[in-house]
Write a structure and sequence with these properties.
Elements: H1 2-25, E1 29-32, E2 54-58, E3 68-70, E4 80-85, E5 94-96, E6 100-101, E7 119-123, E8 136-141, E9 144-146, E10 153-155, E11 161-163, E12 169-173, E13 177-182, E14 185-187, E15 191-195, E16 207-212, E17 215-217, E18 230-232, E19 235-240, E20 243-244, E21 254-258, E22 261-266, E23 269-271, E24 275-279, H2 286-289, E25 298-301, E26 304-308, H3 309-315, E27 323-327, E28 341-345, E29 348-352, E30 360-366, E31 372-376, E32 379-383, E33 387-391, E34 396-397
Parallel strand pairs: 1-2, 2-4, 3-7, 4-8, 5-9, 6-10, 7-12, 8-13, 9-14, 12-15, 13-16, 14-17, 15-18, 16-19, 17-20, 18-21, 19-22, 20-23, 21-24, 22-25, 23-26, 24-27, 25-28, 26-29, 27-30, 28-31, 29-32, 30-33, 31-34
Antiparallel strand pairs: 10-11
């Protein structure tokens, strides 16, 4: 009896091992770069990537000038992975939207009028996908993503040369679930990373985003408040271990702008642009996001914030921030504002400013008196004689 069940267990284990191996065997690895199976990104079958597939991109001295479009569905155990292999000195492979070409595999996937202009890398549901289908379990790792900016042009699927839209991004996700972006660099885009939810429908709501260990700098559009290093409107997001620097000179957006439920900002290095953090209510999908159990509150902890007002003033034509962290809403529709508590603890805040540059500054800007900030165990240090406040206008603190 014992031997029979032992043999059965061994047979079952062998069968499971075979099935698992067969599942992984179906996954493909697309090696891209000099001397690889794919010399360039244009020959990768982007539309057909599925669970377990990997695109491994080797560093080369010349950027890859190819637009990328993704619609695939990975799984938690077998995500779709787009991964770079570093070159000399740790340089990451660069994918740029500047003079990028839409690959033949993506002809018909993009809409020439509505979404091909959105950026270098775009994630969305294809027009042939059923309603409710969502791209999911996608990971980007160890890449430098640039050129999603209206100053640059791309070669469209119809053969014409077009400029990117003002709201373009290095990575623009129209719809995605379980997206991980880690150890990447986003430089010289309008928005660095943009993830959207829209239409007050679960089928159009993005969920569960992790932004981890990335570098964001020199994004934005000079003279505009509308573009940011990061701009997300999703159900559930964590920003951790990132270095988030200022936007390009003259750009007036935020270092990080978020309209999500369940926002956690932790262990980041953040240099303030017009704002360091802009944590406000949703413009789209508000009926979905406002009904999430974690919508009302947000958590900001373990971060290092830095701002040199005199240097920023010199580089930004005298435009500098008065309030570093905005909490609540900005649409004017107060019914959609986050009315809960911003939990702000174990952060370090260093500001350099003289009254000749800015007479007074405050860390927090709350949208109305129904909101509050819970502050604990922070270090707040001012170098200079500018009058410095924790909170100067609406709201309350604990």
């Amino acid at each position: 009896m014992i031997n029979r069940f032992t043999n059965f267990g061994i047979s079952l284990l062998s069968a499971l091992t075979f099935l698992m191996a067969a599942g992984f065997a179906n996954a493909a690895v697309y090696n891209v770069g000099p001397g690889q199976d794919h010399e360039d990104l244009n020959s990768v079958p982007w539309r057909s990537l599925t669970a377990g597939d990997e695109v491994v991109i080797q560093w080369r001295s010349e950027p890859y000038r190819s637009k990328i479009g993704l619609r695939g569905q990975g799984t938690a155990s077998q995500p779709i992975v787009i991964r770079g292999v570093s070159g000399p000195g740790g340089a990451k492979p660069e994918i740029t939207g500047d003079n990028a070409q839409t690959p033949s595999d993506l002809v018909g996937f993009f809409n020439t009028r509505w979404d091909e202009l959105l950026g270098t890398i775009i994630i969305k549901r294809a027009s042939s996908d059923p309603w409710g289908y969502k791209p999911k379990h996608i990971t980007f790792e160890n890449l430098r993503i640039t050129g999603g900016h209206p100053d640059y042009q791309y070669r469209s699927q119809d053969g014409s040369t077009q400029n990117y839209g003002r709201g373009a991004a290095g990575l623009w996700a129209i719809l995605v679930e379980n997206l991980i972006v880690k150890d990447c660099e986003f430089v010289d885009n309008a928005n660095g990373l943009f993830v959207l939810s829209k239409n007050n429908d679960e089928a159009d709501t993005s969920r569960n985003i992790l932004v981890q260990s990335n570098l964001f700098r020199e994004n934005g559009i000079s003279g505009s408040y509308l573009e940011h290093n990061l701009y997300l409107q999703v159900a559930g997001v964590t920003y951790e271990h990132n270095r988030i620097e200022r936007l390009r000179n003259g750009a007036l957006g935020a270092s990080l702008k978020d309209r999500s439920s369940g926002a956690v900002v932790r262990y980041n290095w953040i240099e303030a642009s017009t704002r360091a953090l802009d944590l406000v209510g949703p413009e789209d999908s508000y009926e979905i996001l406002m009904n999430e159990s974690d919508y009302e509150d947000a958590y900001v902890y373990g971060n290092y914030f830095h701002y040199d007002a005199d240097r920023v003033s010199a580089e930004n034509n005298g435009i500098i921030t008065a309030h570093f962290i905005h909490w609540g809403g900005d649409s004017g529709n107060t019914a959609r504002y986050r009315m809960g508590t911003l939990y702000f603890f174990s952060n370090t805040f260093v500001v350099k400013s003289m009254k000749s540059t800015r007479w007074h500054m405050s860390i927090f800007d709350l949208s109305n008196s129904d909101q509050s900030v819970h502050i604990a165990n922070n270090i707040m240090h001012l170098e200079g004689d500018t009058e410095f406040y924790i909170l100067r206008q609406a709201g309350g603190t604990a």
